[in-house]
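Re: export button greyed out
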Amino acid sequence: MKTTALIMAGGRGERFWPRSRMSLPKQFLSLTDDGRTMIQLTIDRISSIVDLEDVYIATNTSYKELVAEQLPGIPEENILCEPVGRNTAPCIALAAVHIAHKYEDAIMLVLPSDHLVHSVETFTQTLQDAVSVASTGSNLVTLGIPPAYAETGYGYIHYRQQSPLGKAYAVAQFVEKPNRETAEKYLAAGDYLWNSGMFIWKVSSILENMHTHMPELYNGIQVIREAIGTPRENAVLTETFPNLPSESIDYGIMEKASDIYIIPGNFGWDDVGSWLAMERIRQTDDNDNVIAGNVLPVNSKHCILESSGKLIAAVGLKDLIVIDTEDAILICDKEHSEDIKKVLAELRATKQDKYI
Amino acid sequence: MKTTALIMAGGRGERFWPRSRMSLPKQFLSLTDDGRTMIQLTIDRISSIVDLEDVYIATNTSYKELVAEQLPGIPEENILCEPVGRNTAPCIALAAVHIAHKYEDAIMLVLPSDHLVHSVETFTQTLQDAVSVASTGSNLVTLGIPPAYAETGYGYIHYRQQSPLGKAYAVAQFVEKPNRETAEKYLAAGDYLWNSGMFIWKVSSILENMHTHMPELYNGIQVIREAIGTPRENAVLTETFPNLPSESIDYGIMEKASDIYIIPGNFGWDDVGSWLAMERIRQTDDNDNVIAGNVLPVNSKHCILESSGKLIAAVGLKDLIVIDTEDAILICDKEHSEDIKKVLAELRATKQDKYI
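Workaround output, generated via the alternate export path:
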């Protein structure tokens, strides 16, 4: 059976402001030392197991050109533009019917476009293990990340350690982002994994499950499916998609379906959730500074310093994030990195859209 | 007797980098809320007691155009360009012979071009008091500032509290920048004032004293004096000035002469010695931030934030100086403001002259 992939690339990545903007969100930025953008790295990573012509990108219309520019090998018809964002379940449904239109059935990898993986070899091996499990029956497989610490910003997945199916374990429960105390408990328990948002299944399996657990979505997507390849395709998508139930695949399917499996992924995963991730994924100097561009540090340490051209003289700084872009400069204490959202809220409130 | 003034405007003001540059030092910057530059404010301040045609500006050739631009009322021949900087004694000697060339004798106010004064009325009254004292005999008068705290960055002047001459007191001793302990002692003693670098005397008095205490300077300056108004003026200046002894007026004259008087100046003086002065001389917001230009502060306090156009989002900052200019951005912890010199040293060492 063919292996295909859906890369979800509709996110806004506000936490990487001012480099990420409405017009250029995180997945289209190069944040690593190698110069490749996040979405390019995502495609590079699976190139040994999925042909480019079988890679689908779900995004929105305003990013279609960016996708085409950054991923020239992807056929234009594989760039699926959601008229509006309706969360992950409709997005996955849309890709599923497109793949089903091309190949009656196929394996479908569902991957975020803005995460990083340290060992590509281990990652592809894990995906292949998942493909094996997903090829049987109507198993839905997800990848979980062994927690490194008691993170409260991720969902967790509780699994049964007994009688694995190949490398996969039966999922006991998907759980929402825990508080600190609960996260500590999960970490200590040893049978909880971080929810990575990566899924592997047959197109037929996910559609069957939608039929059962999300009939409204299933019926809506059939209307879209019937129009694929016809002159009405775009009109039907534009009319129908916004009415699909806005729901996550976790809540809509994974928490309700049976035959859910999880494979622990030991490939070094990073969701690159904020500027703080730079210290994990980029080289640092002798003072633990991450430096890019025209920066002159004097007695500064543990800083993230990015110039877009101007000389940045950083004097006596500690634990600061400095991001200079063409029209905006962020200077942010690391402990306040969540407050970048407040900057964006203020810019919206004062209608300074050009900076958003 | 005519009252004339010499404004000394040859300084580089490195501590205001990156706004001050070799090509635009501090005296030519507007650092206050009123939009006037430091040198313009200096001239404004004495306009009630000195005619513009009697104001002399000592600077160097590269700033001649800046002076002419910022002070259009000053006659071109009053802009005295030192071929090289030789400290304050030769600078004052040069102005003295120019004034002597115009008016046989005159009162001469000697003022820095980059200090601020809070009460112009009290300042001009103090200058007039000083003029009275300087008009008698060959008295040399200086203005001293009652110390507000035990500053270690200024020189001090010890004076005799008994038998004042008008508002002036006889100077007992000029003392160099003290250490902390000594500064505390001076502060407690009550008969020490900060050395403000402002002087008032007759041209004849200062030349007489140079004749006595700095004969080499006196003889050299006579050569220059004789050439004033002749076709050889510039050639003689260029040839002779660099050979004059490089000495401060404090060390060369004030520490050696008799008839030295000091008047305590209660006009609210500020030498605007570094970016830290901004909090004293500029308006602050509710969080004690000094803000100029396109700045969006979020949970930031006690900061100095200046944009030259780009949006600066300042998130969770405390006690930082952020100065954005066309080609360079300084981000500096307040406690490290002295390290700005290290930035300039590094720029020199790496031949990045365009930023200096």
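The CA atoms of residues 89 and 233 of chain A lie 20 Å apart. The button fix ships in the next patch.
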